[in-house]
Write a structure and sequence with these properties.
Layout: H1 12-15, H2 23-40, H3 45-50, H4 52-61, E1 68-71, H5 78-86, H6 121-138, H7 148-153, E2 159-164, H8 171-182, E3 188-193, H9 203-213, H10 216-231, H11 237-255, H12 261-264, E4 268-274, H13 278-288, E5 295-300, H14 308-312, H15 344-358, E6 362-366, H16 376-381, E7 386-388, H17 393-405, E8 409-415, H18 416-419, H19 423-431, E9 438-444, H20 459-463, E10 470-472, H21 477-489, E11 494-499, E12 526-529, E13 534-538, H22 543-555, E14 564-568, E15 571-573, H23 577-586, E16 589-597, H24 602-612, E17 618-624, H25 634-640, H26 645-653
Parallel strand pairs: 1-2, 2-3, 3-5, 4-5, 6-7, 6-8, 8-9, 9-11, 10-11, 13-14, 13-16, 16-17
Antiparallel strand pairs: 10-15, 12-14
């Protein structure tokens, strides 16, 4: 498709050459470009469509990359990537060795901060803004009548935090707001609201207030008078804040609207206004750009704007996969006539509903992921017992702790990468009191195209040291069902971690089925196959490619003369000591494999146990070394890490027997 405008925009400097009246056409082309690109190379569609006008206006008004745009959750930053020199590579977005799924300073100087997890933009942007003020202060000669306010007002770099897509529900965002209200800074926070306004958006008077409060003349004279008063020492910090409170109170009286959280924190509030009016956004941003002090511009947008299927079903079209642009039909991958195994999350959702129907004390908690984790299955039938707490992982865990303390049985489902944000809550609020909270850890291991910010590689290592914590991982769908059911009757905190994607289908190819009793027992693993030379210990779904690798290696009689025993440990904590004693006594070489970081995981636990119990085998640990893993398909990344069948075969062939 030919594009009149965006094909000529290689940087924001090219965008600035256009007239304001041409910007709507630029937005239309960006929208078509993103829809077309994502129909073939899946990504996060609806969020980026909703932020196009805002993106164009920001780059048109501000002088990036000198001015800093700090995006909150890179889902909304696709237009930003296209306008900042990455248009011709955008077809590689989220692909192996291609563009990063989110903003990433290592990829572009226009990406001021990484944006994979939500709610960090305000805190990061405030740090950047204050650092700029401090640098200016350091390079100026001292002056007895120079104040901190002077240095803040003379800053040349503008910093903008763009927060939206539900990220304001995160506690970190409110911590950032609180700090913003206390420190001298010139931070601009753009609240991209695609759900509902903080204040009611009714009638023309609201727009009149936007025009009034963003009036360049009004604000210029207001700040000139304030600066004169300050230089004459007529106001101090206490009086300044009092003046701002009176100003905000006057605005509230004039508008007949209550003060909102921003004005309550003495952060100047502009809006709400139409986030899809690019010319209006340019005008407002120009007028408030140089206003001193922290400020919020509240815009109203629609997720999926400009593409009817995405507008009508924003949840599905957040990340729809491949689709036909004209019809809006999502393209499904077939199973070639074979039975397609269920998704891990579907097994969780269906099993949780079964458990909840039998036990009225069972409740579900999720931080904004009811569909993603399939808790929506229970939510549909038992809505009063499912709690979507928003993007607030720490709160989700402590809320679950409160429920458990009061006698309920909470199943708290959080993606592995996001559970990292609730670590203190797990330690302090759950484990310390030994409360019966079932942590269901979805998307453990490699998750694929979302990359380093989203892989779940750390959970085994960071959960294992926590006292009272019990940790297990299923190899099959049947294992997950039984672990979820067993967890209901247990005491204390339980963590069940499982990967993204489809579950394994048990077959004879997965080892000697007669050795698999099919029952999950507390703290017990199982022997999948017997062998004389080397013991292989795995935990979780990586046991499946390991079984295939062992079969492949042992079939190559000319290359290897050894037999591998294979144990599925199932439990990291407590570990099956009966199996460990058997392995310690019988084998001089042990191989451990896990789809997580090696340091602190299964391999480390086995090494520690063997040392503590007087065994001295050689332990070869397979997993992820000390690194953050890039983005790509799960197949590509497991191959890169040598944790697929081929890579595991290679590792097994290199294992010495003596």
């Amino acid at each position: 498709m030919e594009y009149q405008y965006i094909n000529k925009i290689d940087s924001p400097a090219d965008l600035k050459k256009l007239k304001v009246e041409e910007l709507p056409a630029v937005c239309a082309e960006l929208r078509d470009f993103i829809i077309e690109a994502l129909s073939k190379n899946p990504g996060h569609l609806a969020s980026s469509l909703g932020a196009i006008e805002l993106t164009v206006a920001l780059h048109y008004v501000f002088d990036t990359p000198e001015d800093k745009l700090v995006w909150d959750v890179g889902h909304q930053a696709y237009a930003h990537k296209i306008l900042t020199g990455r248009r011709d590579r955008f077809h590689t977005n989220r692909q192996f060795k291609g563009l990063s799924p989110f903003t990433n300073p290592a990829e572009s100087e226009y990406d001021a901060f990484i944006a994979g997890h939500a709610s960090n933009s305000i805190s990061a942007a405030l740090g950047i803004d204050i650092a700029d003020r401090l640098r200016l202060t350091e390079h100026r000669p001292a002056s007895p009548d120079r104040t901190q306010t002077d240095s803040a007002e003379s800053q040349k770099t503008h910093v903008v935090a763009i927060i939206g897509d539900g990220a304001m529900t995160g506690g970190l965002a409110f911590e950032g707001l609180n700090n913003t209200s206390m420190d001298k800074n010139n931070l601009l926070i753009v609240l991209n609201d695609n759900h509902m306004a903080i204040d009611p958006l009714k009638g023309g008077f609201t727009q009149y207030l936007v025009d009034l409060t963003t009036s360049e003349t009004y604000n210029k004279w207001r700040w000139r008078l304030y600066q004169v008063a300050e230089r004459l020492h007529l106001v101090d910090e206490r009086k300044r804040r009092a003046m701002l409170r009176r100003n905000n109170s006057l605005k509230a009286v004039l508008s007949k609207q209550p003060s909102n959280i921003f004005t309550g924190l003495n952060i100047r509030y502009f809006g709400p206004t139409d986030g899809h009016d690019v010319e209006g956004l340019v005008r407002i941003l120009r007028e408030i750009k140089n206003h001193r002090g922290p400020k919020v511009l509240h815009i109203i947008t629609k997720k999926g704007k400009g593409y009817a299927p995405a507008e009508n079903d924003q949840t599905v079209w957040h990340a729809p996969g491949e689709f036909d642009v004209a019809s809006g039909e999502r393209l499904q991958v077939t199973g070639d006539g074979l039975r397609v195994p269920p998704l891990w999350q579907e097994v969780f959702g269906e099993t949780l509903l079964e458990i909840a129907k039998k036990n009225e004390k069972v409740v579900g908690i999720t931080p904004a992921m009811p569909s993603g984790c399939s808790m929506s299955i229970m939510q549909k039938e038992l809505p009063d017992r499912v709690f979507d707490v928003g993007i607030a992982e720490g709160h989700a865990v402590t809320f679950s702790a409160g429920l458990a303390k009061a006698g309920m049985v909470p199943y708290c489902n959080i993606y592995s990468t996001f559970l990292q944000r609730a670590y203190d809550n797990i330690v302090h609020d759950v484990a310390l009191q030994n409360l019966h909270v079932v942590l269901c850890i979805d998307r453990a291991g490699i998750v694929g195209n979302d990359g380093a910010t989203h892989h779940g590689l750390l959970d085994l290592a960071y959960l294992r040291p926590i006292p009272n914590m019990q940790i297990c991982a299923p190899r099959t769908a049947e294992d997950l069902r039984e672990m979820l059911t067993l967890a209901e009757k247990m005491e204390g905190p339980v963590a069940i971690r499982y990967p993204r994607g489809r579950t394994a289908v048990l077959s004879d190819a997965n080892g000697d089925a007669s050795l698999n009793d099919g029952m999950v027992k507390y703290g017990k693993g199982i022997k999948l196959r017997d062998g004389e030379d080397v013991a292989v210990l795995t935990i979780g779904a990586i046991g499946n490619p390991m079984s295939e690798a062992i079969e492949e290696v042992e079939s190559q009689k000319s290359k290897v003369e050894r037999r591998f025993a294979h144990y599925d440990m199932r439990w990291l904590k407590p570990m099956d000591e009966e199996i460990l004693h058997e392995v310690g006594r019988k084998y001089k070489t042990i191989v451990t494999a896990e789809d997580g970081i090696i340091a602190g995981g299964l391999g480390s636990a086995v090494l520690e146990w063997m040392s503590d119990h007087g065994y001295n085998p050689r332990v070869i640990r397979l997993g992820v070394n000390d690194q953050f893993v890039e983005h790509g398909s799960t197949k590509e990344l497991y191959h890169l890490l040598k944790l697929d069948k081929e890579g595991l075969c290679e590792s097994l062939l290199q294992v010495p027997v003596k």
